[in-house]
Here is the input.
Amino acid sequence: MPEVVLMGDDAANVAQVKDALKDCDSPRDVFGFHDDVAWLAGDLRRSRQVADIIVMGALETWATPWLRRRVAQTLIRASGTPLLILPYDADITWVHRAILGWTPSPEATRALHTLIQLAEPGAAIDIVTVGDTLHQCGREKDAHAEVKRHLSRHGFAAEGHWIVNAVKPPPKR
Here is the structure.
């Protein structure tokens, strides 16, 4: 497809999103991408690493389903930016209840801070850690307590949960 057509489609999509967000009272920028499909996922990885969140449309909004899957996989694996994939015809609203998968790691910490930005005041947040044994889950109780304190300071109702993984890994050979 000629570059000028891709640019026009991209500009039209960006204009439509900006129009939908015109009454939003928070500061934001909207960016679109157009490129040959072979380069698009890499362009996303390199170009938008300093975003607060990336919002991606539902499967029905993409003309090329395999490209959507490739772009989503690239963003999840390489961007370091939270990705919100909306269901079809969904409105963006505050999160009322959330589950935060927790293990002390940079990824979980990033998810925690992003959740704080997306959750409504007073939202219920379940902090969940999965381990292979109850002892392994128990080691994370101090980390849970700290996360719970942090969420409480931000006005959220947080509860900790530990789940023992029922699926055992195969024995090592």
